[in-house]
Amino acid sequence: MGNKPVLLLGLGGAGCEIASRIYKELPESERKRVVVHTFDTNINDILKLGLKNSDITVTSSEYTVEQCLLDEKIRRSNVTEWFPNESPTILRTKFSDGAGQIRAISRLAYMQVMGNPEKLMDLEKKLQTFSQVDGLDYANDVRVMIVCSIAGGTGSGIFLQTALYLKDYFKSKGKNVTIRGSFVLPDIFVKNNIINGVNTINVRANGYACLKELDAIIKSTMGQDDENNINIQLAYKPGMADEKVTTNPYDFVFLYDYENLDGQHLGEYQHYLDQISKVIYLQLFSDIARETDSDEINTLRNIVENDGRARYASAGVSTLIYPYKDIVDYSSYRIASENIGKNWLKLDDLYRHEVEEIENYKKQGIFREVPKKYIRINELFENEIKNNNVFFKHLERSLYEINAEGELGDKKVKLLIENINKRVEDDVTESKEYKEFSRYSGPQVERLNSKPDEMKNEVENFETILIRFKKAVNNGIEDKKSIISSDILPLHLIEPKDMAKFPYQPMYWILGVKDGQALHPIASRSFLYELKTILLEKIGILSEETSDLYSSIERYNKDFEQGRSASEVASEKVNNSSGFFSMFKKDWKVFGNEYNEKASKQMKRLKNYYEKKVLLGVYEELRKSVDDIIENDEERFFTALNEIITDFSQKYDSLSKMHEEKTDVTKVFVLATKELKDKLYQSLVININVEDALNTSYGDIICEKYNRFIVRKKNEYSRQSQNIKDSYKNRILDSYRNKIVNSQILDMNIIEALRKENELLGNDYSSQREFIEQQVRNTKNRAKPFALKSGANELNLWGLNPEILETLSDEEAKELFENKAMVKSNGFSKYEIIRYVSMHGLKAQDFDKFSSGDYSINKEPGDYFLAYKESVDKLTKNEKTVTPHLDKRWHLINYMPDINDGQAAQDKRKITVQFINGLLYGFIISRKKEDRSIWVFKDKYGNVQEIKNGDRDLEAKYPVLLTGLGSNPFIIDSIKNRVAEMKNRDFDVFSRELEKHEFMCLLTKGHPNLIDILIEYVNDCGRSKEAEGKIKIIEILDNFLDEVVEYMTNYYGSSRKRTALEVAIKYMYTMLNSSDKYEKSDKEVDYIQEISAKIETKCRSVIEENRLDISLDLNKDMNYEKLIEFINNRD
């Protein structure tokens, strides 16, 4: 890849999306050399593209246009001079709603942004650090690319200002950068039905206006502004007022239209974004950039040597693609769909059918109990095993320990229970309280049998021990239950290497810690179902046992004579052993023996109760958690699995047809038809072990379920980034994908893929070379610049990964790819062959849709030109429309010339001709206003209006009038129409009386004389502009002389062409000889001589071009009377 830093700016919706696409394609390692920034009205739209807040300058606000115009800073500017504020609809528009194809709104929004420098801070921070990459100064080598559409809206409203801002910024740092523009043209929106209806004309006119402005600036910066009346003023940085633009914003401009050079199109809007993104990516980041840079340097040299306007280009790319990733995805989805769907849901389907059958019986009045799912599923599991279902028999083995002989040992769930029991037993017996009292199995017998007092003391002492132990047991039960339960199902995932220490945890057995293989999801559910069954059974038994124990423990205190305590009975026995009662002295010994037996049993009961009660508590807690996991994880997994399998099936079906449905003609796919994908798939599945593909993912699925259990227990739902369906789907899919990728069966470079396709199509090996050549040639022919323009200079390149060439002989490579045109780089994918074509060194007028046409070669005007012309015509007639320009005045000739040189000359000639007609026919006259004379226009109804340039009156001087008419297209058109009406009337009414035509009357006294006007024109110029005036009057005269020849030729027709030309010659000399100012002038003055010389030259050229035998000398003393006499004699 190229190592030059890149600044990529996306303006507006299309520009932002393209910039985002390009940035996403960049490897992470390349991004440190790239700055991406976007301008748009809607931050949410851009954030959806994956860019950060700091990558965005938002040009909108909640202001309406009207509110913005009332802002104090805005009001102090000259905004009212250029903004089209006549429309209430425009004034009510919110900036946040977008510019709505009105470029001036976008300009106003950008102006507001510049009034708030904080909005540009993110961009300026990037620019400040941009030139320093890896500690080296690259600023002069920075590639700057600005991407936007010029159809209207945000991008087209700020594409000039943004480029000027960057040029100014780098210039202020002493750097000189080359700025390239990539512009999406209007028809990409129009012909893809993104924009339609009345907006079609608007956006096409906008596109034309954008290039007209840019072209005018280029002319101005190349020193052509004076001759072209260029007057473009813009503000483009904070604190700046509108100033005349003196810097060329763009060094190169790439245009992308709907049709390519062959008139082909891509069919969908998104395909165009793909195409443009791919081209720009290649230009900026691939090794093709080196070649395009070199080409641009040569082009720039030619531009400078000529008039500077040939800065336009277009480009296109085609790609021959082996869609490796898509085919891996297709195969992964298909394997998942076919292998999971067959058995994974079989038990659930059987159970569901049974439940549906029970429900149907219920409707018929036959009531049957719905079997408990956790029991019935395992019964169905056993049935499949009995039916010798290999899949389920394999799963059954995973639920058992396998002994050294490979035979089934104990069930893992049984071993789990045993380990839980052992853990409880160990925890209880090793507890401090248990150890403290474990040495007491009963009271000391020798003391009970020694003496009455000794017996009494021993009873009281052991009773205290029993009370203390009982209290310790009751206190310890809950603690031990909680500790053990939390250890059995800890609220964190234990690392696999540490799991071996915890065989009392269900995860130990489900994850297969001992045998190294996690349980299949069906087996893990069966394990939990059986665990639940066992727990419920054991809980029932333990509940009864602990209840009995508890009752016996509580009865102990009332288990002696008359329901008294042992201590009370012992005291009585001692008292009865002396005095009168001594006859009963042996009773204390009998009681001692009885006490020993009962107290010993109580101690044993307490120990037994302690262990069983803790175990019961642990079982109950485990059962609750197992129920939770079954309900919320296992059942939801299998519910999601049903949807997942459906998704897999739909996805692989979609992928199977994906490339056959592609309408993008610039992409040619290999091994991508449904038939070929199926053949690839069949060869894949017989070469990999599909059955064990998911083995490695079982543990991940189990951990995912357990993690969700933890999240619920901790109430930390924010930790779950994916829904349950997507999470499991991705894990399953990744397992199959990894299996396929690691097999490398589908991993082929593009040439190998072509050979494989040739083989799968059943073609002979001998046809292989021809087949590859055909596909490469097809790709080459599809690479065309996306713009209608023929005969342009082209740069043609191949982008190739070196591995591709390694699979070809030198001869094959030479035949397929021209050596000079090959760009070899590891930056290109081995799965693609890229063909890049660009055409350059063009002017805007060279593109067909921007052309004004040329009827001499039957070339029609282009759509963008016609739309612009229609829009300007409406503006001229004050019809309801909005300027396509950034300034409501810029359609006027006084501000900039047309893109097309011929049209620009025609526009200038139109003004010159109507300047002459207006004066000669008396439509334009001078009138006193206060203490000075000004020009006014008289319409056909006699109404008079002042002629203005903007808000200023025109001083009654001829140069001022000629310039001012460029700002008054309505007057120009009115004069043109009135003269045409007069001509048509005269040709109709006086078809044989030329002398009565108004055009002839221009030669009579009482009408202004053109020569008089021209002489006065020079005088009005003053000394500073005299030289320009002398040139201008010859131009004016030349235009009128052409009008004379055209008029007479039209009148007499082609059959009397000689007469027509003779009359024209005599008309010219009559006009000269009728001029009072000419008669009185010094004939030695240069411009006086040039006037007469021009007439003579024109007459002589008429004679020579038409091979007439007419003497000029005989016509030089011509006057009006002689002219009329000649005309009458000829009629």
- Oligomeric assembly: single chain
Care to count the β-strands? 22
Number of helices: 44
Shape descriptor:
elongated
Structural class: alpha/beta
Name the poorly predicted regions: none
Main beta sheet, described? 11 strands, mixed
Roughly how much helix do the residues carry, as a percent range? Answer: 55-70%
Work out the radius of gyration: 49 Å
Mean pLDDT: 88
Instruction: Tell me the β content.
Output: 5-15%
Euclidean distance between termini CA atoms: 81 Å
Task: Write structural notes for this entry.
With 1131 residues, this protein is α/β, with parallel strands linked by helices. Among the domains are: 330-682, no CATH class; 750-846, no CATH class; 896-1130, no CATH class. A hairpin with a 5-residue loop joins strand 12 (400-402) and strand 13. Helix 15 (324-343) crosses helix 30, helix 19 (412-429) runs parallel beside helix 25 and helix 27 (587-657) packs across helix 30. The radius of gyration is 49 Å and the shape is elongated. The relative contact order is 0.08.
Entry keywords:
single chain, elongated, 11-stranded mixed beta sheet
Write the layout of secondary structure elements.
Elements: E1 6-11, H1 12-25, E2 34-40, H2 43-47, E3 56-58, H3 65-70, H4 72-75, H5 79-82, H6 88-92, H7 103-114, H8 121-130, E4 132-133, E5 136-137, E6 143-149, H9 154-172, E7 178-184, H10 187-190, H11 199-221, H12 225-228, E8 233-234, E9 243-244, E10 252-256, H13 269-285, H14 288-305, E11 312-321, H15 324-343, H16 346-363, H17 373-386, H18 390-398, E12 400-402, E13 408-411, H19 412-429, H20 432-438, H21 445-450, H22 452-488, H23 496-499, H24 506-510, H25 521-555, H26 566-575, H27 587-657, E14 667-669, H28 674-685, H29 695-714, H30 724-743, H31 750-760, H32 768-782, E15 793-800, H33 802-806, H34 810-816, E16 822-824, E17 832-842, H35 863-876, H36 901-920, E18 924-929, E19 932-938, E20 944-946, E21 948-949, E22 952-953, H37 958-965, H38 969-989, H39 998-1001, H40 1010-1052, H41 1057-1073, H42 1076-1080, H43 1086-1105, H44 1120-1130
